[in-house]
Amino acid sequence: MTSEPHSPLQTFRLPAAVRGTHSDRALGRALVAAWQSDGIFQIRATRTQQEAMERALAASRAFCRRPLNEKALHVSDLSYSGYVASGEEETAGERDGSEIFTVCPDIPADDPRVIDRWPCHGPVPWPSPNYARAMKDYMRVVGGIGGRLLRLTALGLGLDDPDRLTRLTTDGWHHMRVLRFPPADAASERGIGAHTDYGLLVIAAQDDVGGLHVRPPVPGEARGRNWLPGESMAGRYEHEEPWTYVTPVAAVFTVFPGDIMQFMTGGALLSTPHKVRLAARERHTLAYFHEPAFDAVARPLDAPDSAEYIHYGTHFTRMFMRCYPERVTTARIEAEGRLKVLDRLREEALA
Ligand SMILES: O=C(O)CCC(=O)C(=O)O
Ligand SMILES: [Fe+2]
User: Fold this and answer.
1) Closest ligand 1 atom, CA of 191?
2) Cα separation, 330 vs 324, whole angstroms
3) Residue 256, strand partner residues
4) Sheet bearing 11-12, strands edge to edge
């Protein structure tokens, strides 16, 4: 474990495997403490991880340079994977400037779940084989970080079973947003409005431009339960301090908890609100989300028999329908009554 005094954020090195040793437990406690004070920490990237990150960013830059009409072809009405033009996404009803390619699990059209009309399930409309390879490689590499971080988190929270969290992530619904932010102009500096992300962990990489801000835990501040319809965190505290600027640092990942972590820990770890402001130059980032399985049910760690739960696939589907009210994917879920399929999946998962 290293903590670099000169960096504004705490930075850690991950062991190659997490076995539950004394030093794993100490590292886990340090990670939990960093989230509780700062809402975020950095993980030092290995050479291999750094190379995968560079290849993914290069593939994204090449794709983003293609004409809009070509990029816009890479959309699916089965899955939220694919291209999102600048201005298409909404956070709290306001349009974001980000241009995005979303990569959700790549599920072949003949998979039984696709045939049975599970919402959000389908193939990724990849722009090219090279792009697909770069993103899949990167997600595999970052997924390995996610698995180790979840074991360390379980140890850091003092749980006896280091696999208490990873048990939810077998066949995890890990996904990624590959983002480009245009330079700010006179009309707008809005990259993405304040929000929290939905799952267990957000593992992000950014180029050298900067623009990300996170909200650290604030003693006494009410934080919504983003998974409940009346408590959306979208837009919350957008214009109220404190926000911490995440200075770009080469060869690191920044990591913070998502909604499921807040729910499971009863708020001991808060889902970190964050927002992006546009900079003078265009900016490229990779936001990877380490998630429970689509049909997993999360319950509070200290009350596993509680009546309170989150069915992950329901939360994911609701959040994406909220961000993309006009997308073909949303229209098809509604037109085909696919939310009823989700109701059935949830009942089966709870049974
Ligand atoms: O670009 C970033 O640094 C963060 C992007 C983000 O918050 C998201 O994609 O959910
Ligand atoms: Fe985010």
Assistant:
1) 1
2) 7
3) 202
4) 11-12, 41-44, 252-257, 201-206, 283-290, 175-181, 99-103, 82-84
Domains of the chain with bracketed CATH: 32-350 (2.60.120.330)
- In angstroms, rounded to a whole number, what is the distance separating the alpha carbons of residues 137 and 155? 28
Sheet holding 212-214, edge to edge: 190-195, 274-277, 212-214, 244-245
Q: Which of 207, 284, 275, 202 is nearest to 243 (CA)?
A: 275
What is the best residue among 86, 96, 103, 192 to mutate for testing ligand 1's pocket, by most ligand atoms within 8 Å of CB? 192
- Judged by DSSP in three states, 90 sits in strand
Tens-place pLDDT, residues 190-215 = 999 999 999 999 999 999 999 999 99
Q: Angle at Cα 157 formed by Cα 155 and Cα 161, nearest 5°?
A: 45
**Distance separating alpha carbons of residues 30 and 45, to the nearest angstrom:** 18
- The reply to whether ligand 1 has any atom less than 6 angstroms from the CB of 99 is no
* CA 95 – CA 81 distance, rounded (Å): 19
Q: Which of 276, 267, 217, 222 is nearest to 246 (CA)?
A: 276
Exposure on the CB side of residue 152, measured as CA atoms within 13 A: 28
The two structure tokens encoding residue 118? 């599970």
The contacts of residue 294 (CB under 8 Å, 6+ apart) are 105, 118, 120, 121, 171, 173, 312, 313, 316
Read off the pTM.
0.97
Residues flanking ion ligand 2, Cβ below 5 Å: 197
Neighbours of 6 (CB within 10 A): 5
| Position 8 pLDDT exceeds 90 | no
Q: Which atom of ligand 1 is nearest to the CA of 179?
A: 1
Ligand 1 in contact with 285 (CB < 6 A)?
yes
Which ipTM did the prediction report? 0.99
C-beta of 96 in contact with ligand 1 (< 6 A): no
